[in-house]
Every structure is written in C-alpha cells, then in structure tokens.
Write a structure and sequence with these properties.
Layout lengths: L6 H16 L7 E5 L5 H10 L3 E4 L2 H14 L4 E4 L8 H7 L2 E5 L2 H14 L4 E5 L16 H10 L4 E5 L9 H13 L4 E3 L6 H6 L4 E4 L1 H4 L4
Parallel strand pairs: 1-2, 1-8, 2-3, 3-4, 4-5, 5-6, 6-7
Helix pairs in contact: 4-5
Length: 220
C-alpha cells in the first residue's frame, strides 16, 4: 500500500479502512474539513486537492473568507458546525449549505423565518446533548422528539442528528446512542466523530465526520 502523501489523503485512507472493517461503502461518509480559525490561504490547497465539504464555527468568521472562496470553487459545500445564535439565523441561511447545531425551539422559529425571507434553507442536523453537558449546547435527549416534530412542522429540512461526546471519555457509547436516537426518530444522518475518534464513529454509523486538526494541524 502506497504511503499517503498529504493529510487529506491520509484521512481519506483511514475513512476507507474504517468503512472496509465496518462493511460500509466509503461513499456513505462525508468528510467535513473543519477550517475554523484557519485563513483562506490554508483552505485553498485542500480545495485544489479536491476536498469540497468544509466546516466553520462562527458565522462572522465564515463571512470574511468564504464568499470569495466560493466564487472560485462554486462546488464547495459550507457547514456550520458551531453554535448558532438566533439573531444570526438570517446570515447563516444565506451563507451555509448545512447547519449542524439546531438545538432549541427558538432557533427553529428563527430559521423558519429566515427560510421564508431567503426562499432557501440549509439542511439541518439537530445537535443532541448526549453527555448532559450544558456548556456544549445541544437538545436534551428527552426533548428530542418534540424538537424533531417542531422542525418538521416548520418545514426545516432535517439531515439527521449531531453530537460532541464528553472529552476524555470513551466516545463509542455516545456514538451508539446517537445512532439509536437517529433511528428512533427516522433520521438518516449522523454527524459525529472528529480527528481523534472519527474511525470509531464510522464503525457506529457516522455519515458525516468533522475533522480539523488531522487536516490543518493544531490551531495556534
């Protein structure tokens, strides 16, 4: 087997290997390159290499670098992977193609209003607080069915569920929980797994893995 030459090739090879072990098609897993805090000149080489899905944490930061990048790489797909304030919903709907952090009723209402104004709406993942950590955001597990129903009623296109497991704890049980919750609620997507654990996430059903450090190096 040839040695991967770039970080992107290396991550893609690991995704392919995890899919082989899990008896899954690598085409089922979308790699989201988390480019938050990295400037456009660090992102462009990955675009040139063929990476198309990118994740940003903050609306304002993405507004500063992505419109120009999207002009040159119109096939780029932009994911909001950080928390979204309701007052930024309109900006997010205009710029992003996918939102991974829908987690409360007030945000459903804000997105529905922004969708009506813009005539479009990004696909949304509902973020679930699988580790019961309030500081990370996310819908409580007990509140998930009601939030799913409200989003569907409002015409928000739901892609699936997203989670960020607690740090320094084996993530597999949390990934398995998200997979079960997605099945229970009839949702196809599971956005889970980051640089240190995306292979485990793939084994447990991830459809989207959010990888930053393994592609861009540690942030300054």
């Amino acid at each position: 087997m040839e040695k991967a030459e770039t970080p992107l090739q290396e991550v893609r090879a690991k995704i392919a290997k995890a899919c082989t072990i899990a008896r899954r098609d690598p085409g089922e897993v979308t790699l989201v390159a988390v480019s938050k805090t990295h400037p456009a000149e660090a992102i462009e080489p990955l675009l040139v290499e063929g990476q198309r899905h990118f994740g940003e944490n903050r609306v304002q930061e993405a507004q500063g670098k992505w419109p120009e990048l999207k002009e040159r790489f119109p096939a780029a797909v932009l994911h909001l992977v950080g928390q979204l304030q309701s007052n930024k919903a309109e900006d997010a709907v205009e710029l992003f193609d996918v939102i991974h952090s829908l987690d409360r009723s007030s945000l459903v209402k804000a997105l529905a209003k922004a969708k009506e104004k813009a005539g479009r709406c990004p696909e949304c993942f509902i973020q679930v607080d699988v580790g019961e950590e309030d500081q990370k955001g996310g819908c409580a597990i007990a509140d998930l069915p009601a939030l799913v129903a409200e989003a569907r009623e409002a015409g928000i296109p739901l892609a699936g569920l997203m989670c960020i497991p607690p740090a320094d704890i084996e993530p597999a049980p949390f990934f398995a929980l998200l997979d079960k919750l997605a099945r229970d609620n009839g949702l196809p997507g599971r956005s889970m797994g980051m640089s240190g654990d995306f292979e485990t996430a793939i084994m447990l059903g991830a459809t989207h893995v959010r990888v930053g450090t393994a592609l861009f190096g540690a942030r300054g």
